[in-house]
Amino acid sequence: MVRDRRRYTMTTSPFMVFYGNLLIILQYIWSFELLQPVPGLFLKKEVPFRELGSKMLCLLSFWLLLRQALTERKESQREEEVLSGIRVIHTHKKEDKEVMDESGGHREMMEVLGNTLMAMLNKYWIYICAGMFFFVSFEGRIVMYKIIYMMLLLFCVACYQVHYEWWRSMLKYFWMSVVVYTMLVLILIYTFQFDSSIHVWFNMTGMSKDK
Fold it and tell me: What CA–CA distance (Å, rounded) separates 40 from 63?
């Protein structure tokens, strides 16, 4: 959605790591017998290994992202120190050069892996998104928000078939609409799990609990 996606991703990586660690710690504490479950957040599980394992696996990607951000920041600071002439002793320069060569090789390897991953995502990302649309639309019981997901998918496919240039021009706004709609659905599903919210949503929407 933003132009400099890489910089914003690196900037937000510490927050994502902190938030993920906080969720894992809280879920581990809530798995104790004396604590009551929280609807939609910490469910009571006899063996929470699967939930904790899946969250830790997802958190691993943010840890790798944070490590890459810290590595690049350290390399940038080192290059600024070298260019400003702070290090004047020949032995220190030699050690810095060796360290920079090692880190440069590591950085080149990470760039190659990153470019390969980006090339694969650019080629197959549309199929992943379409597959997620189908999974969300047909998984479980068919309800209204899943029907809207299917309508969005069919609208996107129809625009692609009718006029490719129109499809490319509206694709950004289409995904923005999907993200906003998904956030709204998640908020509604989460708040509806609390007993006190059922009457509120019934009065606002006129829909019963079964709907």
Answer: 25
Report the alpha-carbon distance of residue 37 to residue 31 in Å, rounded.
8
Question: How far apart, in Å, are the Cα atoms of 136 and each of 119, 144, 145?
Answer: 26, 12, 10
pTM confidence score: 0.49
pLDDT at 5: 73
What's the length of the chain? Answer: 211
- From the CB of residue 137, how many other CB atoms can be counted at a distance below 10 Å? 18
Token pair in block for residue 85? 């002439």
- Residue position matching structure tokens 């710690």: 25
CA distances, 179 to each of 12, 63, 153, 184 (Å): 19, 24, 13, 9
- Percent of all residues in the chain with a pLDDT value above 90, rounded to a whole number: 0
78: which 2 tokens? Answer: 């080192």
> Domain coordinates of the chain in residue numbers?
1-80, 140-211
Phi, psi of 188 (to 5 degrees): -65, -45
pLDDT of residue 100: 54
How far apart are the C-alpha atoms of 160 and 166, rounded to whole Å? 8
Mean pLDDT value across residues 184-191: 80
Helices (H) and strands (E) in the chain, counts: 6, 0
